[in-house]
Design a protein that fits this description.
single chain, alpha/beta, six-stranded mixed beta sheet, binds adenosine-5'-diphosphate, binds magnesium ion, ATP hydrolysis activity, FeS-cluster_ATPase_SufC, Putative ATP-dependent transporter SufC, ATP-binding
Length: 250
């Protein structure tokens, strides 16, 4: 699904990612944890294709193809989904119409016909029920005046509609309350299939009380310094990042 090899990336000449290696297979949930400023959001941004970051070394393949050969919108159409810490608001465009356009763009990219209106509405109803989102929200303009929890709900709804192959959810610094954490976790758990994968980026172990990751990685100063299973997140919660530093002699 995703293969990252020796990825280095910089901003304004300063190296932030210093050789990341990561393999994600279909059906897997990975958690990336790490202290503030370790490069977690940078990694997500580089994968999404934000051009303020410069990739200086390494390679990334997504479903067997070179990710960096593709523009950000192509990556999305190929099935890469990124949550944003600060999602854009689009006044005057309802969520329903926004999703209709997005879903049909993706279908076109895959060589499928546009969904008939009645079929789209059927899918919409199913997905709304799945992620327990209310019509009051989906009929409103995209993200306009949404609370933090509503934005999260909306994000999970988008994930459900777009059926991405790989979702990268950066939950780090957004100060999610417990309800928002549950929304994200329920969404990830419900949308998991044997064919898709999720990377959850989180500063706190709390989220992993609800999502059980197959692999946990600790990012420290631009490198993955330790990987393990869900126990690693528990150990980290107990002993803190100082423990990792000591153990790894960092
Ligand atoms: P994390 O998400 O793990 O908290 P970030 O990826 O946001 O870490 O940041 C990693 C480092 O990159 C930090 O030192 C941060 O200051 C720097 N950085 C991130 N974005 C920018 C930017 N737009 N301009 C300058 N430095 C940045
Ligand atoms: Mg940060
Ligand atoms: Mg961050």
């Amino acid at each position: 699904m995703l293969s990252i090899k020796n990825l280095h990336a910089s901003i304004e000449g300063q190296e932030i990612l210093k050789g990341i290696n990561l393999d994600v297979k279909p059906g897997e949930i990975h958690a990336i944890m790490g202290p503030n400023g370790s490069g977690k959001s940078t990694l997500a941004s580089v994968l999404a294709g934000r051009d303020i970051f410069e990739v200086t070394e390494g390679e990334v393949t997504f479903q067997g193809e070179d990710l960096f050969d593709k523009e950000p919108d192509e990556r999305a159409k190929d099935g890469l989904f990124l949550s944003f810490q600060y999602p854009v608001e689009i006044p005057g465009v309802s969520m329903v119409n926004f999703m209709r356009t997005a879903v049909n763009e993706i279908r076109k990219h895959r060589g499928q016909e546009e969904l008939k209106s009645s079929d789209f509405l059927k899918v919409l109803r199913e997905k709304k029920a799945l992620v327990e989102i209310d019509s009051k929200l989906t009929n409103r303009s995209v993200n306009e005046g949404f609370s933090g929890g509503e934005k999260k709900k909306n994000e999970i709804f988008q994930m459900a509609m777009l059926e991405p192959k790989l979702s990268i959810l950066d939950e780090t610094d957004s100060g999610l309350d417990i309800d928002a954490l549950r929304i994200v976790a329920n969404g990830v758990n419900k949308l998991k299939t044997k064919d898709n994968a999720t990377i959850v980026i989180t500063h706190y172990q709390r989220l992993l009380d609800y999502i059980v990751p197959d692999h946990v990685h600790i990012l420290y100063d631009g490198k993955i310094v330790k990987s393990g299973d869900k126990q690693l997140a528990v150990d980290l919660e107990q002993h803190g990042y100082e423990w990792v530093k000591k153990e790894m002699a960092l």
